[in-house]
Specification:
With 435 residues, the chain is α/β, with parallel strands linked by helices. It has 3 domains: 3-74, Arc Repressor Mutant, subunit A (Orthogonal Bundle), CATH 1.10.10; 80-179 and 366-433, 2-Layer Sandwich (Nucleotidyltransferase, domain 5), CATH 3.30.420; 188-358, 2-Layer Sandwich (Nucleotidyltransferase, domain 5). The protein has helices at residues 3-23, 28-35, 39-52, 116-130, 154-161, 174-184, 245-248, 250-259, 263-266, 276-288, 292-316, 326-330, 332-349, 366-378, 384-391, 400-403, 407-413, 424-428, and strands spanning 25-27, 55-60, 70-74, 80-86, 90-97, 102-109, 142-146, 169-173, 193-199, 203-209, 212-214, 320-324, 355-358, 431-433. α5 (154-161) links the parallel β7 and β8. The radius of gyration is 22 Å and the shape is globular. The chain binds zinc ion. Residues 226, 236, 238, 240, 243 line the site of zinc ion. The site of zinc ion has 5 residues, from loops. Belongs to the ROK (NagC/XylR) family.
């Protein structure tokens, strides 16, 4: 088969897998109708997917007079993938099956997230205990959610930490992973637009359309950090005044807590760079439990987030928002109350309905999203570019992402309107390389 033919076949396979996943089980006729391709094309592709063990026959549809159609479902145990998140004080892994369902998870402490050797060592330690019965090398691939502040150096970091793993790898920024993880965990609508606001060191934004990310422009990830909250606020490095990160970043929250008499000591905040994310979670927990000073600080920050989210989403007509990140998810009821007052009420005043929920995937959905990304990228059979990227002489398969024509090409490149050739790292913040 020609390379073009392989790509087309692989894209068809990926589209079929996606339809079967979404419908739980379905028939060849339904697939052919939804895909708009001939029944013969579907029959041929399904035969290939059954042989690969990715699909299984699962009984027969009810008869409507004629021959009963046989039903297909995903063989959820056929493949599994790993997702990795690198937080300030820990490294977390999640394993998902072919349907995206969480199979196992583990977190190990991380002393120095900027030390790549330490990250690699933590990754190996976590991999050895994630699914000892299966062995990490049996995984289809590993996805890595890159911390907000490391995204620019993503491909280099990915190469470094996965260099002696014999597993294909891919990375994306944290907000994109949070959105995918939340979507695949059933927290977002199957169709339409949904914004995920992920608060970690910074406040990132990822928008999914029908479950697929709309990516920001070249070389950047979307952030709410510099959305103006108060024009008379303090000057910001961007040249503006009163930007969101000055009120609601982890740094701003912890600085405010440290400046309140005795609060830092009472909450046992460590106030070091590596304790930033655990300190902000302690503050959120205290706020949730009604500690008045913590509550005041946290509520003001959440209100600022609501204001920025309103600015970003109302302009785009987005009415469904999911909030994620360890601090927001540590105080879901309080965050919900603030969003109801400062976001949902504004939509209602304008005669529309808006929904804001806090993700329930603990501690946050990035690891699941990164695993799903790896699954989407590497699961499709006939991954020609495993050889293809090698034959191009490079181990970094940035163009290969799309060339593979897998779930990923479908969800990340082709249907997001991204160019198939060229630097996907720059275009959508995603990089992959073959182990
Ligand atoms: Zn700014």
């Amino acid at each position: 088969m020609s390379t073009t033919g392989e790509r087309r076949a692989s894209a068809t396979d990926a589209a079929i897998l996606e339809i079967v996943r979404r419908r739980s089980q379905t028939s060849r006729v339904e697939i052919s109708r939804e895909l708009g391709v001939t029944p013969a094309t579907v029959t041929y592709a399904v035969k290939r997917l059954l042989a690969e063990g990715l699909l299984v026959e699962s009984g027969f549809a009810r008869s409507n007079g004629g021959k009963r159609a046989s039903l297909l479902r995903l063989n959820d145990q056929a493949r599994w993938a790993i997702g990795c998140t690198i937080d300030a004080d820990r490294l977390s892994l999640a394993a998902v099956d072919l349907t995206g369902a969480l199979q196992a998870r583990i977190a190990v402490p991380l002393e120095a997230p900027s030390d790549r050797g330490a990250v690699r060592e933590a990754l190996h330690r976590a991999l050895s205990t994630l699914r000892p019965e299966a062995g990490a090398h049996a995984a289809t691939g590993i996805g890595v959610a890159l911390p907000h502040d490391l995204t620019a150096d993503g491909p280099a970091l990915l190469r470094e930490i996965t260099r002696d793993l014999n597993i294909p790898s891919i990375s994306a920024n944290e907000p994109a992973c949070a959105a995918l993880g939340s979507f695949w965990s059933g927290e977002q609508p199957e169709s339409g637009l949904c914004a995920t606001v992920h608060m970690e060191a910074g406040i990132g934004l990822s928008i999914l359309q029908d479950g697929r990310p709309l990516q920001p422009g070249p070389g950047s990830s979307a952030t709410l950090d510099h959305v103006g909250i108060d024009p008379s606020g303090p000057p910001c490095e961007c040249g503006g005044h009163g930007c969101l990160h000055q009120y609601a970043s982890a740094r701003a929250l912890v600085d405010r807590a440290a400046a309140r008499d005795g609060l830092g000591e009472e909450l046992e905040l460590r106030l070091t760079p590596s304790s930033l994310s655990s300190d902000v979670v302690l503050l959120a927990l205290a706020a949730a439990h009604g500690e008045p000073r913590a509550r005041e600080i946290f509520t003001a920050a959440a209100a600022a987030v609501a204001q920025a989210v309103w600015a970003a989403t109302s302009a785009l007509g987005i009415r469904t928002v999911v909030l994620s990140g360890p601090a927001l998810q540590a105080a879901p009821v309080l965050v919900g109350e603030v969003m109801a007052e400062h976001y949902t009420a504004r939509a209602r005043n304008l005669g529309t309905e808006a929904t804001v929920t806090v993700s329930q995937v603990q501690p946050h959905p990035c690891a699941v999203g990164a695993a799903v990304l790896a699954l989407q990228t590497f699961v499709s059979p006939g991954l020609a570019s495993r050889g293809g990227s090698t034959s191009q002489g490079g181990r970094t398969a940035q163009g290969g992402l799309a060339a593979q024509g897998g779930f990923a090409a479908q969800s990340f490149a082709a249907q997001s309107g991204l160019a198939v050739q060229g630097d996907l790292t720059a275009q959508c913040g995603v990089a992959s390389h073959e182990a």
